[in-house]
Structures are given as structure tokens and as C-alpha cells.
Design brief:
Chain A is mainly beta. Chain A is built from 1 helix and 9 strands, in the order αβββββββββ. By secondary structure, chain B is mainly β. In chain B, strand 3 and strand 4 form a beta hairpin. The chains are: A mainly beta, B mainly beta. Strand 6 of chain A pairs antiparallel with strand 1 of chain B.
Chain lengths: 121, 137
């Protein structure tokens, strides 16, 4: 049984999910299309500058159904994005909704300019 | 292809083409297909139409059932912001699925989960396969 499972795992096609990267006033946003991926099957890994997203779809395969058209199927999504230094790694947020992963990458907060009071002596 | 039975019509060619497109990594291989990608299947009682439409909830999808077709309409809106990269398809989509079997219109059921739309169309009673008992006299 386990051998069969392994074989099936290997034959899973890998897709690069369609990705949008955009900037707004409060930081950067990444959107990835990951249809069919449940939250539990999604892995987001940050190693140094590389943020890697991977996830497997788990479409059920009902036994008695006969297919006449098949334009998508089970597979694994995988994509890496390099982060620049201006991203605050501690505050990255991820949200998976309706098959779209939203990553929010805030900028590192700039040190506020500080006015130095001069007191007359 | 290894399997090539006929010069006139070969359903295998089509299948092989789809298969190759699945194997080729990247968006490029799938771009040639109409949006959204569809899976059509049926069992004895029901026709199933499945579509991958991530980022659109059920209220943003319009399903219309006519005598012979199921029409799937909707819109994927682009996010606001300054784009560095834009690969996700955006805009209005429209697909017409031919149903060659009559269905029970009032029992059609559509669900959406993780960006996967599933429409179950129960077949009309008269087309369901049934066993006819023959009395031997």
C-alpha cells in the first residue's frame, strides 16, 4: 500500500501558481492562486531571503464517475519569492481564502526622526 | 504518441495533449485553455461540472441553466495597487457547457470550496439507466 502511495506522490505534476505582487501604502502584497489547496496542506517557509510557498491539492476521486473532460487535476503548487531587506520578516501575515493565498509583507518601520531640543545653558 | 489507432478521429490525441499540458510545469502550458478550467464527469444519477475559480465567492458567480446548456459567468477583479508582477487572470469570464442529457432543473446544487466550484445536476428520471425485468413465460 505504501509503495503505491509513494508512486502516486511522485507522479503528481508541479505547477507554478499564478502570482501577483503589488505595493500599497502600507507595504507589499503577494496573491497566489492555489485552488483546491486546503489550509492544512499549505506550507510557507521563509529561509533567509527566500519565501517558498508549497501546497498540494486534494480533489476527491469519486469511483463511479466517468470523465468526459478533464482540464485540471491533482498536483502540487510550488513557488519561491525573494524578499528584499525592506520587508519586516517578523510581521508577515498570510491568509488563505477561496483558494487564494494573500501574503502581507510590511515594510521595516523607519526610525522616526527625532528632534533634539537645545536648552540654553 | 504511442497510441494512434486511427487517422480520422482519435480521442486519444486529445487526451494525450491534455496530459502533456498537466505535466508541463508553469502557467504557460495551461494558458491555451479557456478560463476557468473545467472537469466534466457523470455517474449513473448525476452530471458533475467542476471549475477552478479561486478568489471568487459564490455570490460573484452566475449560473444559468437553459434547456441544453449550463452557462457559467463571473468576474475576477484585480487587486488595487502598484503592480510588480501580474499573472493572475482578471476580468469577466464566461463558459458554456453543453448538456446532452436532460436534468432535473429544480434539484441542481452548486457548492464552492477552496476555489473549486462543483455543480451537481441530477439527471432526469427518464434517462437514468434502469433494469427491466423480463418475465419469462
Amino acid at each position: 500500500m505504501s509503495d503505491v502511495m509513494k508512486k502516486e506522490d511522485k507522479s503528481l505534476p508541479t505547477f507554478r501558481p499564478a502570482t501577483d505582487i503589488l505595493e500599497r501604502e502600507d507595504g507589499f502584497y503577494i496573491y497566489m492562486d492555489l485552488p483546491g489547496v486546503h489550509k492544512d496542506a499549505l506550507v510557507i517557509d521563509l529561509q533567509e531571503n527566500d519565501l517558498t510557498v508549497s501546497g498540494k491539492t486534494s480533489y476527491p476521486a469519486p469511483e463511479n464517475e466517468r470523465y468526459s473532460e478533464m482540464q485540471f487535476g491533482n498536483g502540487e503548487y510550488r513557488r519561491s519569492v525573494s524578499l528584499s531587506d525592506i520587508v519586516d520578516r517578523e510581521r508577515i501575515r498570510a491568509n488563505l481564502n477561496d483558494g487564494v493565498l494573500e501574503l502581507y509583507l510590511p515594510r521595516v518601520e523607519k526610525t522616526q526622526p527625532k528632534r533634539i531640543e537645545i536648552t540654553s545653558g | 504518441m504511442v497510441l494512434d489507432f486511427n487517422t480520422l478521429y482519435s480521442p486519444f490525441d486529445r487526451f494525450d495533449k491534455l496530459f502533456e499540458e498537466f505535466l508541463s510545469p508553469g502557467v504557460a502550458g495551461r494558458k491555451s485553455m479557456a478560463y476557468p478550467p473545467l472537469n466534466l464527469s457523470q455517474d449513473d444519477d448525476t452530471i458533475y461540472v467542476r471549475a477552478e475559480i479561486p478568489g471568487v465567492d459564490m455570490s460573484g458567480i452566475e449560473l444559468t441553466l437553459t434547456d441544453k446548456t449550463l452557462v457559467l459567468k463571473g468576474e475576477r477583479k484585480a487587486e488595487e495597487g502598484k503592480y510588480y508582477r501580474q499573472e493572475r487572470p482578471a476580468g469577466v469570464f464566461h463558459r458554456v457547457i453543453n448538456l446532452n442529457i436532460p436534468v432535473q432543473r429544480d434539484k441542481v446544487n452548486a457548492t464552492m470550496k477552496d476555489g473549486l466550484l462543483t455543480v451537481a445536476l441530477p439527471k432526469a428520471e427518464e434517462v437514468k439507466p434502469r433494469t427491466i425485468s423480463i418475465d419469462v413465460k
